[in-house]
Design brief:
By secondary structure, the protein is of the alpha+beta class. It contains five helices and seven strands; from the N terminus they run βββαβαβαααββ. The chain has helices at residues 57-68, 91-101, 120-130, 140-157, 167-181, and strands at 2-9, 28-41, 46-52, 79-83, 105-109, 189-191, 194-196. The strands form three sheets. The protein has a three-stranded antiparallel beta sheet with strand order 1-2-3. Strands 4-5 form a two-stranded parallel sheet. β2 and β3 (46-52) form a beta hairpin. The protein is globular, with a radius of gyration of 24 Å.
């Protein structure tokens, strides 16, 4: 899920030219905000998006409904939903809620502070760069229309991401983090007017 605002710059954006970067005016007027929710099929490189007035459990379940009521997901044996730990889909309650509505849907949470493991974040970064920057929109309708047009074009041309972060890589990362978290604090030996760190070999006289 991503948040998008409609802001209208007081002066138009100056397009880049020869030896000149794009110039964006810093003064703007607010035009409201909306939430862009999207699901990404990692095998087909297909995006299912929708705009809502806000985030939350109901908007998230609307997205789930949008996807799970169409094929091939409606009749699939299992459909894995990979999500972060945001309030819209956090904890065991969210797992139970999804399973109660769609028994073939399995909710999987990324580790805390590791939402980057979810490939939808790659798509959101593309949207940020190609759709909502610079943020210069007349109103929210213009934001919605641009998001829809981009989504249609993306689905017509996109290929699956070449995802190189394997489960073995994840295991290694978690093991390194665990070692770092449980590393004992080194002892610090003090002498008058001197601080000695036993991990540093300075060659000083003892």
């Amino acid at each position: 899920m991503g948040g998008d605002r409609a802001t209208r710059l007081h002066r138009p954006t100056l397009a880049p030219g020869q030896a000149r970067a794009m110039r964006v005016n810093h003064e703007y007027g607010r035009g409201g905000a909306l939430a862009y929710l999207a699901a990404y099929d990692v095998h087909q490189a297909e995006v299912f998006g929708r705009c809502e007035a806000t985030t939350g459990i109901v908007p998230f379940m609307n997205l789930v409904e949008q996807v799970m009521t169409c094929e091939p997901y409606a009749s699939a044996k299992r459909v894995f939903w990979v999500v972060d730990n945001g309030s819209s889909h956090r904890g065991q309650r969210s797992i139970d809620r999804l399973a109660a509505r769609f028994p073939n849907a399995v909710l999987v949470h990324t580790p805390v502070h590791a939402s980057w493991l979810n490939q939808i974040e790659i798509f959101f970064s593309i949207v940020q760069r190609k759709v909502v920057q610079p943020n210069d929109f007349t109103d929210l309708a213009e934001v919605r229309n641009r998001l829809r047009r981009f989504e249609d074009r993306y689905n017509a041309t996109a290929q699956p991401f070449q995802w190189k972060f394997t489960t073995s890589d994840l295991d290694d990362l978690l093991a390194r983090l665990d070692r770092h978290t449980h590393r004992p604090t080194p002892r610090i030996l003090r002498r008058p007017g001197r601080l000695i760190n036993p991990r540093r070999n300075s060659g000083a006289d003892h």
